[in-house]
Amino acid sequence: MRGSTAARFALLGMALLAFAPFAQAMCGYFSRPIISNIKQPAVLQPSQIAFITWDPMTQTETVTVQPRFEGSAEDFGMVIPTPSQPKLHEMPRDFFKALGLVTQPKRRAFAESKLMPQMFQRFGGERAMPAMAGGAKNVAPEPERPNTVTVLEVGQVGNLDYKIIKAGRADDLFQWLKDNKYSFSGDEATLNFYVQKNYVFTVMKIDTLQMKRNKDGTFTGDITPTRFTFNSEKLVYPLKITQVSVKDKTDAMFYVQAPYKVDLSGDFTYQYHWASTLQQVAQTIGENDLIEPNRKWLRTAQQAQAQLFGRPNTLGFSFPLGQEPPANNKGHMPSRLEWAKRLTADDIAILSGDQPYSEAIPDPDFGFTRQDLNDPRRAAAVMKVIQHRLAKYRQDRPRGYLVREGPKEDLKTLGVLKGHLQQGQMLTKFYHTFTRDEMNDDLVLTQAKIGDAEDTSEHEELLRTVTFGGGRGRPFGGLPVRPDLPVPPIPGRIE
C-alpha cells in the first residue's frame, strides 16, 4: 500500500460486490446489461454475487466473494462483519466463472433427421460505502474511558491486506477507522448495528496500482476471490451494511451449498415464483412434462393455496406466462429460483473431465447422405433405418436429451471447483433484486419448505410452456436473464 498517500478508502460490506456492465446474453450463466453509475464520485455497487456453504451440524459457514470495484477513490477497501472471527483463504480467480458454467440450465433436445425434417418435427421448445468526508460529530472521547477496539489478526490474502478487529462501541470503531486513514462517511448507526450483535469486522485494503484506470480517471478492477470461514448460529448474509452504498436497488445472486435446499426467509422466498412456474407448466403442457420430484412439490404447493398463491396477490406480485415478474407498487420484486440440484458423483466427475459437460444428441442420419434418398434403390431402406433410429431414441429418452453449451476455454476452468463442490450436497442458486428499503436487516437463509414439508424439487433444466398462436414454447428458467457472470454469449444459444 502507498502508506504516505492521504488515502480515500471506500468500505464495503461482504454483500458489496460491484460489477461492471456486462455484455447482453441469454441463458444460464449469461447476463443482460447492468447499468452502473461509474462516473459518480462514490464507489458504487450495482450487483452482488456470493457462494455460501453451510454445515448445520458444526454451525460452520463459508462465504466466497469477488468484488469488482468501480469509482474515483484513490484506494479501495472492504469491511466485512461476521458473527465470529473468520479464517481467510484465497480462491481461484475463475471460481465464479466455473460456478456459473456448472449451474447453467440444460435445455431439452430431441434427435432429428436433417434428411427428412418435414417428417420429424422437434418436440417442444427450448458498496461499498463512500469513503469521503466525514459526517462524524466532533466529540472528544472521555479521557478515562479506554478504547474498546482490539486488533485480533493482521495478514494478507491474495492481493489484499487485512485486519480483523473487534469493538465494544461503535464510536470507538468509527474513530479507529479514521485514525487508520479509512475516511468513513458517517454511518455510525450501521456500525453500531453489528457492534450490538457482538460481530467482528474484517477490514481490507486494495491498492489501485493493481486496478485499471479509465479515461475519465475512475478505476475498475477485480480482486482475488476470497473465502471467509466462520461459526454462526444461523445461516446469515450481512446485507444491512450495504444499504448506505445502494442508491435505489441492487441485484444479488446467491449460490448456496448445504445438506438441504436453501431459500430466503419470509416474503423474500422464491417459492411464490417457483410454485407459479410449476403450475403454469402443468396447465399449458401437462403435469407429466415435469420430473417426478417437481410434480410432487407442485401438489404440495397446491395444498398451500393461501400461502403460495394468495399471499403473492396480497403483496401485489404477478407472474405473467414466460415473462419476468413486474415490480409491485412498492418497487419490490419476487425472488427467482435459478438452479437447484443434489450433486451426484457424475456432477463432480464433470469438474475433472471424467464426465461430459453436456449430453450428446445422436444423429439418426449417420452414415447416410442426401444422395442416398435420391437413389430409388436405396431410399426406402434408408428411410426405414432412420425411422427406426428415431423411434429408438424417442423410446430411450422420451423427455429428450439434456444439452447445454459453453466456450471451450471456459470449460477448462471447471477444475477449480474440485474440492469445493461436494457430492451429496444440495446446490441452490437464486436471485433477488433488493430495493434500499428491503435492506434494513441482514438476511437469514433457511431450509426450503412449505410448512413442515421439505422442498426436494430440482431445477436443472429449462422448463417449457406453450406459446399459443404458433411458434415454439418459451422456456422457463432461462428467460428473462439476470446478472450473473461477465462472459460473452455462446453462438447458437437458445433464445
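the 2nd protein, sequnce then structure:
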Amino acid sequence: MEKFDMTATTFFGLEGVLAEELTKIGASDIKLSTRAVVFRGDIQVLYRANFWLRTALKVLVPIKKFKAFNDKELYEEVIRINWQDYMAVSDTFAIDCTASGPVFTHSKYAALKCKDAIADHFRNKRGRRPSVDTEYPDLRINIHIYNSDITISLDSTGIPMSKRGYKVRQTEAPVNEVLAAGILKLALWQPSEAFTDPMCGSGTFPIEAALMAMNIAPGNFRHFAVEKWRNFDSSIWAELKKEQKDIAKPKPENIICGFDIDVTALDASCQNAAKAGVENFIDFNRKDFFNNSKPAQEGFLIMNPPYGERLETENEIGEFYKNIGDTLKNNYDGYKAWILSGNLPALKTIGLHPKKKIKLFNGPLECKLECFEIYSGSKKINKQTIAN
C-alpha cells in the first residue's frame, strides 16, 4: 500500500508518549513537533491511528503546502487544488483554521477565503457550489497558517479524540480523556499494578485505566470523519474492529478504584463507566480520601485535586494540599502518587519531595504533574533496611 505523510496533534507535553503509540501501530519516519507528531504510513496506519491512539487529538493528512503573503494568493492556491479528488459537488464540507503571525491575523477571514475558493472551484468545474455543514460535513478540511506558510490538510478524525463518546455526565473542571490517558502513560503505570484515583470526579482516570488494562480501543465508542471519505475502505475498517474484539481482555489484571466524597460525582462516574462497558471492573465508592486507608498493599495513585477556585483563601488551599501530603505519607506507603494541579504554589505545601515534575496544560491552564514515592519511614531508612 502507498505511504503518505500524516500529522497527529496532541497536548503540550504528550508528544513523546504519542510518538511511542505511533511506533506500536506501524508508523514510520516519526518526528516530534510542538503539540504534534509527524509520521508516515499507509491507509491501514491512518485507520489504526484514529481507532487506537489514546493521546492524539486529531489525525490530519496534508494535501498541499505553500506560501502566501495575502488573501489573494491564499485564494488562488486553494482554488487550484483538484477538490474533486476528495469530494463531490453534492457533498458538504467545513473548514477549521488556525492562523498565527503577522501575515494572516484573523483565522475566520482566512477560512472564509478558503471556503470561497473551494466553492468557486466546483462552480467553475461543475456549474454549482457545494454546501457548508459545520456540524456533520462529508469532508472536514484543516487550514494551518504560520506566518506565510500554509498547510491544507484533510481532517480524518472530525470531533477531537478527547471526545471518546462514553461521557454521559461531567463534573466541574474535568480532565479530558486524552490528557488522562497521556498522564497514565507519562506515569508509566502498568495494568499489572493496582490503580486508585481518590478524587475521581466524573471517573476519567479510572475509566481510561480500565480501557488500557483490557485492551479496549479508545475509538471503539464513536465514528470518525474518515468513514465518510470517498476512498474509505470498509473492509479494512471491519477487520480493525474484529481485531479489537479478538485482543480485548475479559477483565483487568489488578484492582482499579475510583473514590470521591461527592455522591453526584460518583453517580456520573458510574454512568460514564457503564457507557464505556467497564462498570463491572472499577470499584467506585464514596470515600473521604483524608479518612480512609489504601485499597491495596502497594500500587499507583493519580489525582487531580481542586485548584482552589472554590476555596476562599490561600491559607485554605494551602492547608488542603498539606493534608494531601500528610494523608499520602501516613496512609499510602508503598504507593507511587502522581498529582496534577494548576495551583503551583499549593503544590509546594504538600510537604513531600517530588521525584519528578512534568509541565502540562489542563485546557489553557498551565499545570504541573508531580510524582511522589511514598515509603514507610524515610527513604534513607528503607535503603538501609534493604542493604541489611
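The chain has two domains: 4-155, 177-215+248-387. The two ends are 60 Å apart (CA to CA).
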